[in-house]
Amino acid sequence: MVRPYGYPLQRKARLQREWLHLEIQRYRRQLEEAREAEEAGAELSQRLQAQQGKGTPLPQELHARLEAHLGAALPKIVIHTDDEADALAEELQAEAFTSGNAIFFRKGAYDPYSEAGQKLLAHEAAHVLQQRQGLAKAGIDSDRSLEEQARQAEQPFIPRPVRWLELAGGLTIRLPAEEEGWLDEGSAIGLRGEYRAIPQRIARAYRQGLSATAVAEAIRKAEAAVHMPLLEAVLTFLGRAEGLKNHLLQAYRGGETAQATATPAQPAVQRQATSANRPPLRDLEPNFTFDAFLEQIATNLAYSNLPDLENQIRDSVDERGLEAPRRGSNPAELLKVFGFTSDRVIYGRWGLQARAFLPDPKRKTPYNQRAILAFRGTEGMYPAVTTLEAKLDTAIGDMTAEGAGYPQYQQNQELIARNLEFVARKSQGGKAVLTGHSLGGALAQITAAKHPNLTDQVVTFMAPAIRTADAKTVDQYNRVHKDDPIEARHYRVEGDLVPLAGEKLLTGKLYTFERRVRKDSNQPWRTGGLWGAVIDTHLTHPLAHLIDQQGATNPYQQAIDQHGAHDPYLNSSETAEVNIKWSGAYDLSKDKDPRLNLSQPHLATAPQKYYWAAVDVYYDRIAYTTLLEAIEAIAKRHDQYPAFRKAALEFIGSTDRLPLSKDALLLAQQIQIKDFEESIFFYIKSRFAKMKEEGVKIGQDVKYDIADELLRIWCSWHPGKKVTR
Prior knowledge:
The chain is α/β, with parallel strands linked by helices. It has five domains: 1-39; 49-152, no CATH class; 162-277, no CATH class; 281-599, Rossmann fold, CATH 3.40.50; 610-717, no CATH class. Helices cover 47% and strands 13% of the residues. It holds the Pfam family Phospholipase-like. Residues 259-281 are annotated as: Disordered. Residues 17-54 form a coiled coil. Residues 57-134 form the eCIS core domain.
């Protein structure tokens, strides 16, 4: 396609004109709606009078807390949520409005258990108080100062009442006084701080002399009270005190025979003895070498956008000079040694990316009987990283109330199924190995739960958990297929926050590691500070580093040591030495996952904090994704690329507007985009509501973007098929 000289400037000017035209139309509609509302005032007054004596009183407990929050007595507030209330609010184009002591809500807007519902209720209660004090008139009042007061009232309520629970002598923790919270993000943040302090305080009490038995009992009490496992967090705060950690593990599991207490001189001696007695992880885990190869795929190769990894050698770049192998690796040589070839990158909607690694028929190795499907993880954390991939992965992939990985899977489940079926056909036994790092590990587990009959193994690295129901689906499959169950192995480094999310890992083996750094041999080992403990731990390669530390025992481990990626700061000027050691091995069919779970409802504030990022990403990418979904439907119908390209270009050229699809509506619901947004005076229709009515406008820039990507779209939907021109 030939584009005219100066095209970017012309396109920018055209888009600016279109945007200005849309803004003028929007303001005109607002003025017209305001005039219509004023003309309908008499009828509205009559309908409001007809509602007197109806409605439901606000619950007394919530009423009292609103009074405390607003600092003044409130009249008896009546809540209206019936059809007439919905109709009145709709006519006013408001999510809710007040008339005297009555608050009228749109259908579904009255939700005192959600943060958004609490803010809306506090906002309207402030208007009730203003009307009682004679500062505002009933209905919609255009006084900006009063509206600002109501907006300030949306701030979180005061923290809910608390109770104190004694875990051991002199060791108490703070908990919510009631199970169901009316309130507020503020309470959740405060309690989250309390909950995070629990394992640290338990570890401190243990170091100060509390017995292992008492500490184990305190952990059990705390876990029962806060409904999340705390053992691994306590072990993390104990650091390298191996003797204390072993005694605590024995006591927690019911196997302690003596009362172990902390003494100042013991930890170093105990640590040395324990380290000497611990077997190498490669002797404990029979799949160690294969998993170390999967670690390279999940944490390194799956992140590459290059179409041909077999030709990517150390220090090479693509034809644009934009991408070199990560962290000094040599993908071509590593794949060759293990007997695999890389297939084309799979691109989906809303940031999904995966790649298949297929057995090389020309080379047989002990590890290439099964084909591998690897899912890419989060490409940087937004807003620290501001690339498009980082925004999509963080706002859509990670930080929704659905759980990490679920929105991307749901938006691309047919694409994933088609590629998984292809990968399984390339495997002995018709089953694939699924792997992924971070978000990719969650996607691998979800895919296994949805397609257990096509899954042989799931191996994840620094991955969050998934929904309990999905994990139990795999458990049920394994009970029925005892002779050929799905194997799951999980690897994570202590201090990494990502694995704290979610509800349950797939049942299998879990291995945990400690990562320490120091600038030279004269300095003590440390975690690397907050950034090192939280970020670097998530990016490291623990299995590759163990091979480097302990020495390779076979040619395949030598290939990983020589050609694989290693810790990102192994050779940096800031960190001269990195030490990795495995610190725990768990059988999740018997042992509790020893992690501090941050997924409980009263701690789940991340989706709210990323709400506007998700909304921005949705609006920014909805035109592109809507057209992409339509083109994907064409790709599915055409087995030959030339015919697809012709049909796709004809469709793109004739399309200026498309309706929101079911998948787009589902995603909007998941990230809680609503039909109404707050303006200066009242609630108005959101861009999303207008898209539902008018469809999504497909701009010329979006058409150009999709037209440039037709080949990779078709290839993603036709794995293994050759492209004919």
